[in-house]
Design goal:
Elements lengths: L7 H4 L10 H16 L3 E8 L2 E9 L10 E3 L4 H6 L6 E2 L12 H5 L5 E7 L5 E8 L9 H41 L3 E9 L5 E9 L8 H10 L3 H13 L10 E6 L1 H6 L1 H5 L8 E5 L8 H11 L4 E7 L6 H7 L3 E4 L1 H4 L6 H17 L2 E4 L5 H10 L3 E2 L8 E2 H8 L5 H11 L14
Helix pairs in contact: 2-5, 5-6, 6-7
Pfam family, one: EAL
GO molecular function: cyclic-guanylate-specific phosphodiesterase activity
Protein name: EAL domain-containing protein
Length: 436
């Protein structure tokens, strides 16, 4: 019967998110090398600017060095193996007088030593993949070296994935940091209308970025979250939005989006210190599961004197009805997924009706997002929805144009001509993830 390949378990693992677990998987590969070859130590080194750094080490021994240890490349076997001065398979260092020049040969001591260069897909030398024991071993053969080389190839795949992830993260971090420093973000206002009177009652602030014609703002916020700059970018949007409040006429309100993470960070509370609690609404946007609703509720309570609280995307997010009650909101915003085709979908109509009844029980106003047709508007009015927004009323407008809209000084068609020139949409509908 054919013996299974020692690397088979790694080849059959799912590849999704392998970059995230690259370090763990390289460690497991080293453990497998030790087990299969019967050696005491296995490690990966990286060559960097004339230095050799241990990045991964697997051993049951108490070693004098571990991950992070650095020394000049000339002081170890790895560099010289990679450049052909030592063979990849050394059964006994005594066979090669050159090994006596390295302190590690006697200090460890080094016995049997197998080492292959680690090369990336472009052929560049990353470092080395090594397995060794403290005693010579004449039984080690080229076949064993071939096994080591197979494991090294697999480790290089994970390492390269990690390098690509790190390079991407570095580039994203640089781009987002520059954008924040330069405040290269524009705020648009999307009108919110009373469904009873048809008149505008307020606006929701929406962030737009320099590449708004190519992709939506959700990409920027997702990438900022990915590199640990989510709160910083979101606070730029919040500060930029608050700066537009003077352009919202008296008698109208302005809504600003904030994630639970930003709310709980305390940064939002500081930004709202000088704000008017009657004219400002903070929309809690849940794009990730909230770990502590009690902590979020406490943070919202602290900012409630400065702003009313709305729960965004009700009907599609992570929060259940009990959690909505725990947060004590003033406004519920029905997600556009409930609005879409509600005039022809009985299930969506029933869900929206239930949310209206729920809002009455807890004393909340309710806003329907994403109204795009007269039929959707009619159903929402029949259900008793208080307010609505969406392309039926207006797309997001530049701040001054939105001010004119709220004052009744601009016609719908005229406003749309302006917004199409200022902020061309990367997608056909209002289904872009909102942040401001």
């Amino acid at each position: 019967m054919t013996k299974p390949s020692p690397i088979a378990p790694f080849l059959t693992e799912p590849k999704n998110n392998f970059e995230l677990y690259a370090n763990e998987r390289v460690d497991r590969i080293l453990e497998a090398v030790r087990s299969h070859l019967g050696v005491e130590i296995a490690f990966v080194t990286k060559f960097d600017d004339g230095m050799r750094e241990l990045t991964h080490v697997s051993s049951d021994l108490e070693l004098p060095m571990g991950p992070g240890y650095r020394e000049p490349v000339e002081d170890g076997y790895c560099w010289h193996v990679a450049h052909g001065r030592l063979p990849e398979l050394i059964q006994d260092p005594a066979d090669y007088p050159f090994t006596k020049e390295f302190a590690i040969t006697e200090m460890l001591p080094v016995g049997c030593h197998l080492n292959v260069p680690l090369r990336l897909k472009d052929g560049s030398l990353y470092g080395s993949f090594c397995a060794l024991s403290r005693a010579p071993d004449r039984s080690m053969t080229q076949r064993d070296l071939g096994v080591l080389r197979a494991f090294a190839t697999l480790a290089a795949e994970y390492i390269e994935g990690e390098l690509e992830t790190d390079a991407r993260a570095s580039a994203l971090s640089r781009t987002i940091t520059e954008l924040i420093a330069g405040e290269k973000l524009t705020i648009m206002h999307q009108p919110i209308h009373s469904l009873e009177t048809g008149l505008p009652s307020g606006v929701e602030c929406l962030a737009r970025f320099p590449d708004a014609g190519e992709r939506g703002p959700d990409k920027w916020f997702d990438e900022a979250d990915e590199v640990g700059l989510g709160i910083e970018l979101e606070m730029l949007a919040v500060r930029s939005a608050i700066a537009t409040l003077p352009y919202v006429p008296e008698g109208h309100y302005m809504s600003v989006n904030a994630s639970p993470e930003t709310i709980m960070s305390g940064a939002l509370e500081q930004a709202l210190e000088a704000c008017d609690g009657q004219r400002l609404v903070i929309e809690v946007t849940e794009h990730h599961e909230v770990q502590s609703y009690s902590e979020l509720a406490a943070a919202l309570k602290r900012i409630s004197p400065k702003a009313r609280i709305a729960i965004d995307d009700v009907g599609s997010g992570y929060a259940g009805l009990r959690h909505i009650v725990d947060l004590e909101p003033d406004i519920l915003k029905l997600d556009m997924s409930l609005t879409r085709d509600i005039d022809t979908n009985p299930a969506r109509r029933a869900m929206a009706a239930a949310m209206v009844a729920f809002s009455h029980e807890i004393g909340c106003l309710i806003v329907a997002e994403g109204i795009e047709t007269e039929e959707e508007l009619r159903v929402m009015k029949d259900l008793g929805i208080n307010y609505g927004q969406g392309y039926y009323f207006s797309k997001p407008l530049p701040v001054i144009r939105a001010q004119q809209w709220l004052l009744g000084l601009v016609e719908p068609g005229e406003a749309q001509d302006i917004v199409d020139k200022v902020s061309p949409a990367p997608q056909a509908s209002s289904a872009l993830r909102k942040r401001a």
